[in-house]
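Postdoc handover notes: sequence design on the structure in folder B. Input tokens:
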């Protein structure tokens, strides 16, 4: 976000809060005059203004910043920060009146100022801020475009996005896909990667839908998750579908979220040789390569096409040899490995095709 954008957003946020402030004070003064209970009046005024503030914030502050979030997440995060502001208002108002001896109006003013600053800082980090990161690649031998890239890692602070537990220092592989359906090659790749790279776990990230694939024959998410759980009996393979709660199926958003949520974990992105062949068509593929190391699992009839693809040629200088596979998880990105392993003919596309013709799988 540019300085101009920050100023523009702060201006909108200030305008919304000034309008809410007028309502807050009107209700506060009316209730104080009517009932002479300033602390209760302060909380009531804040509560009424909060509803008004939420509506205006959605129109003028969230626009373009929180659009990636669902209505439920926006409301939950805004309510949580608003509840903090309500408690802060009551504490400051009561303390200023009863401990310091301020008049109700001065006490309310102090509470409003403190709430404004505190909520702006909280909401900037939690509700409607985007965090931008500049990434500079060393110049590769083969140039396919500018290697200085700029990506946006959105600030996902909500605890409503549930991911598998992990602790600092763990090495975890990430295998994303639609798993429509999961098959033995997914298990074989996961176990081979764990063994060769020395990973503690592999997470299967079952996406609600692949943005690069048609969804006409996509099975329901719950059905695919259950199929994954039945197939992956290895306890070190964890099944998760947190992208549905994240509100995005973009790989760059998913990886940036995990890097931010679990900063001390060493992640390795796992893809197949067929994915590497088309990697240059992915959204922000350079930034994906800069976020974490990745391993490419060999796939039948894809090795030559994958290694001659634009992305592989652009990133050739960052490729590490097979014998150094155990160091990949701790390598500084960009770093990647093309992993040679026993090939499996299993394919989700072919399995669906056989099912469609009612041939035994």
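Designed sequence:
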């Amino acid at each position: 976000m540019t300085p101009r954008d920050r100023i523009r957003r702060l201006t909108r946020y200030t305008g919304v809060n000034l309008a809410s402030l007028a309502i807050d004070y009107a209700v506060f003064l009316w209730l104080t005059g009517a009932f002479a209970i300033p602390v209760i009046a302060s909380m009531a005024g804040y509560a009424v203004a909060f509803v008004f503030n939420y509506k205006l914030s959605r129109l003028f502050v969230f626009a373009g910043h929180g659009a990636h979030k669902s209505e439920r997440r926006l409301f939950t995060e805004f309510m949580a920060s608003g509840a903090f502001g309500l408690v802060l208002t009551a504490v400051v108002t009561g303390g200023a009146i009863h401990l310091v001896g301020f008049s109700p109006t001065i006490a309310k003013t102090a509470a409003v100022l403190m709430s404004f600053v505190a909520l702006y800082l909280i909401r900037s980090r939690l509700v409607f801020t985007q965090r931008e990161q500049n990434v500079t690649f060393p110049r590769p031998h083969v140039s396919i475009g500018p290697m200085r890239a700029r990506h946006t890692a959105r600030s996902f602070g909500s605890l409503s996005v549930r991911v598998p537990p992990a602790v600092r220092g763990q090495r975890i592989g990430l295998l994303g896909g639609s798993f429509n359906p999961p098959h033995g090659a997914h298990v074989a790749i996961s176990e081979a990667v764990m063994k060769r790279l020395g990973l503690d776990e592999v997470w299967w990230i079952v996406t609600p839908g692949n943005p690069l694939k048609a969804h006409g024959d996509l099975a329901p998410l719950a059905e695919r998750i259950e199929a994954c759980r039945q197939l992956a009996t290895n306890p070190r393979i964890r099944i998760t579908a947190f992208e549905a709660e994240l509100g995005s199926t973009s790989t760059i958003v998913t990886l940036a979220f995990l890097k931010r949520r679990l900063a001390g974990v060493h992640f390795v992105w796992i893809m197949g040789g067929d994915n590497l062949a088309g990697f240059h068509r992915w959204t922000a593929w350079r930034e994906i390569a800069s976020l974490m190391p990745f391993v490419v699992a060999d796939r039948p009839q894809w090795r030559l096409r994958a290694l001659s693809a634009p992305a592989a040629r652009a990133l050739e200088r960052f490729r590490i040899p097979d014998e150094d596979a155990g160091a990949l998880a701790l390598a500084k990105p960009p770093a990647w490995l093309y992993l040679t392993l026993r090939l499996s003919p299993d394919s989700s596309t072919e399995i669906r095709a056989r099912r469609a013709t009612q041939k035994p799988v």
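Context for whoever picks this up: The chain has two domains: 3-128, 156-356. Don't rerun without checking with the PI first.
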